[in-house]
Predict the structure.
Amino acid sequence: MIARRQPPRGRFAPTPSGHLHLGNAATALLAWLQIRSAGGTFILRMEDLDTPRCKPEYSAAIPDDLRWLGLDWDEGPDKDGPCGPYAQSKRTALYERALDRLREDGKLYPCYCSRADLLSAASAPHGVASEGGAYPGTCRRLSPEERRERERRKMPSLRFAMPEREFRFSDGVAGPQSFPPGAGGDFVVKRADGIFGYQLAVVVDDIAMGITDVFRGWDLLDSTPRQLALYSALSAGPPRFAHGPLLLGPDGSRLSKRHGAVTLAALREQGVKPERLVGLLAWLTGAAERPDPVRPRELADAFSLKRIPREAVRLPDNWRQMLDGA
Ligand code: GLU
């Protein structure tokens, strides 16, 4: 009997704290190509938990920008499906249930350290570096008296206690990965202000949505061991992971306003044609041999993760001129 592989389920999961920029567009394109080239189901999920940072106008603009690029999805905030709702702000009951389970299993502990103490934005999705270093475990070791004493002064956040073991996985782009025990440290699953942490929400949703293939940006590679620890704590098998290259400005620095109009919204407004942008992004990320205008669906047949570069990609000096023309 021939074992038939289930069609893959993948997703693009933007945080609506700003307009999509070229880097997000490259990630969305590659995630879409990976799934469409295999005849799978593609999901759009809005990761809008951090309410102070996320804005409804961005949640509204993102699907528009993606459609303009030529991408589509089978399930999403505007297209209900079996795993909805597709915005994290509407899924908090699921996160609470997962927390109950982790709490019952003794995998969480309250943390009273302040942000200033730690120089840490603990729920920021962008990996260890941006979280100000691994949490030193201060509150994991508190005695019951110390805990009671701190409780009187401060609402705690909740941290997941990372198991003391190595995490290994094979990344579809980056290749074999291994992270030493404790990599990244114990991380926040619920902030003191009640907002659920990125790692928890993303894993709970990827499990509930039956995601088989996660494709996202390189900046989240070092989140993967923490997510693997959560999969295991929630008794779920992990998906396949692939991390695509970050897109940098021509000077090699992180893409920003300094590099000109780098959001899709701004480029659209300047009259750039989506086929030109897709052509440039596909060429830079190994999905096309030349930077010629093209539609995403024309790239699906030849798509392979193997051709995606393993290091950050710089925009060429003349990237903006390359986008001009019909
Ligand atoms: N929401 C995350 C971000 O915008 C991506 C989450 C993921 O793909 O795992 O960076």
